[in-house]
Specification:
Blueprint: H1 8-11, E1 13-16, E2 21-24, H2 27-41, H3 51-62, E3 69-75, E4 81-89, H4 99-109, E5 113-119, H5 129-143, E6 148-156, E7 159-162
Length: about 170
């Protein structure tokens, strides 16, 4: 018995406003809709219940992007979300990250902690040497202004790597 699997887009439809008909959703439309759902679920003041929740959140926000995006979750003293900010956008294999800019936003938001994350469009979530170096620089820079760096999550395809869980933070 053979099973035929339809792509997810074939089972989801979007309305074509110009023709007033429905057509299959594109992968990009599905990803954008998922990001909007995550934004509605995880709003300011919401608490992440576990590291798995943070990874799922960042996976939904960053997976499938064709260029690197470096994002920061700014948190209060009880680790509730103050703001999710996509701070830097790069190319297919790099994004220039400036710790000074992260600190400026952390101070403006009066954040007590931060979790950073970025994607690897290649699909491989393995942290690079540059990722390790940046994480150390960010941790030290944020420490100087009393903001704790709780984790750095790398998203690659459908997988994530947590610096904190891997003992790299």
């Amino acid at each position: 018995m053979s099973h035929h699997f339809l792509p997810l887009a074939a089972s989801l439809m979007v309305r074509d406003t110009s023709r007033r008909r429905y057509r299959p959703a594109t992968d990009d439309q599905i990803l954008e809709a998922a990001r909007q759902v995550v934004d509605r679920r995880m709003q300011r003041g919401m608490s992440f219940g576990s590291p798995a929740d943070v990874k799922e959140y960042l996976l939904t926000k960053l997976a499938g992007l064709e260029h690197e995006v470096f994002a920061v979750l700014f948190l209060d003293t009880k680790h509730r979300l103050i703001e999710y900010t996509e701070m830097f956008h790069g190319t297919i294999d790099a994004a220039d990250v400036h710790p000074r800019e992260v600190i400026k936003v952390a101070l403006r938001l009066n954040a007590a902690a931060a979790i950073v994350g970025h994607n690897h469009p290649s699909g491989d979530p393995s942290p690079s040497d540059a990722d390790r170096s940046l994480t150390y620089q960010l941790k030290e820079a944020l420490r100087l202004v009393d903001v704790r760096l709780l984790d750095h999550i790398v998203v690659g395809g459908r997988f994530t790597v947590s610096f904190a869980e891997s003992g790299m933070l």
